Amino acid sequence: MRVISVSRLEPSKRPYDFLAVAQRVCAKRGPVEFVWVGDGTMRMKVVEEAKKMGLDMVRFVGRLSEDKKNLLLHQSDVYVSTSESEGFALTLGEAFLAELPVVVYDLPVYNEIYNDFPLKVKMFDVNEFSEKVSLALDKPDWLRTRVIQAKRFVEQNYSYQSVGRRATQALNEILKLS
Amino acid sequence: MRILGVTEDSRFLAGGRIAFIKLMKALAYAGNSVTILSSIGATLGVVDPQPARIIRINVTQARIVGPLLYMFKLFFHLPRQIPQAEIILVNSGYTVYIVALLGRLFRRKVVVLQHDVLGLEYLQSIASTTSRKYTSVLRWITIYTPLRIVDGVLCISDSTMRRLRGMGYSGPAYVVGNVVG
């Protein structure tokens, strides 16, 4: 089983929380692979911390091409984001397109963008986060249904066509303003 | 519509830069003529901008020196590209000031694509070293102060628009979302 996160390794993404969640999930369920895709200024420190914590099942694979990233998403079971601030969270949408359940901290922006499709966790509560990841790994039927609905929602609202149409309209209106 | 897009890039892959190229691509799919001006960086080979055209300026990937060199080179590239565009869309970041000023000079409307809106206090709190604290102040100034002189803002979410309004921005703003996939 594999849990994946795609993000820069920066403080606002809280990669240490990712390690704490990995530790708790593996302690409860046995070996589950945790993969972080993305690079950043914290990489050395976080890799070192994972070693110190003895987390052999955590891998930091760095930056990947879109194709490789999407392949890895499709080969995973759960998507997580421990970020504490987001403007949109593009990768959540990509995870839904790959039909993955998503576990995140409860940021208001997620409700605006993805309705109630992600599984939300109280801010910085790594114990609750681990429990939700475990739940998602069990893949209950209600969660599978929710993920399929989320995929359809993303396809309808965030396609090239729908965003291109909205942006063209906005730019035209700005051009008309004196 | 003929649109010029301007964005920064660096050796680290950032969602905001990918989102910008995808938005330009979406605008091209919607029937607009789109050219993107960017630097060499992590998005190269990651996102295919077609049918939008992209011009990548060659600069070093080093921190501070890379952005400074890119800004310097933009002073030569922008005057060639701006007259061919009807409107300029610039990705939120350190290039906004230069684009806004040159856009005014050439009488073209300049619109910013705004992603997350982060307060200075927050940026300071996550800066791990003294030099990063200084660069975060500089970054905050270069991102948010030029919003006073642009013609509009495209926001990726309602949340971004709310925070932008909370910071005092009162100009035209529209929520367009991001392309996913």
UniProtKB/TrEMBL annotation, chain A:
Residues 3-151 form the Glycosyl transferase family domain. GO terms for molecular function: glycosyltransferase activity. InterPro entries: Glyco_trans_1. It holds the Pfam family Glycos_transf_1. CDD domains: GT4_PimA-like (cd03801). Coiled coil: none annotated. It comes from the Archaea. This is Glycosyl transferase family 1 domain-containing protein.
TrEMBL record, chain B:
SUPFAM superfamilies: UDP-Glycosyltransferase/glycogen phosphorylase (SSF53756). Residues 22-179 form the Glycosyltransferase subfamily 4-like N-terminal domain. It comes from the Archaea. This is Glycosyltransferase subfamily 4-like N-terminal domain-containing protein. It comes from Candidatus Marsarchaeota G2 archaeon OSP_D.
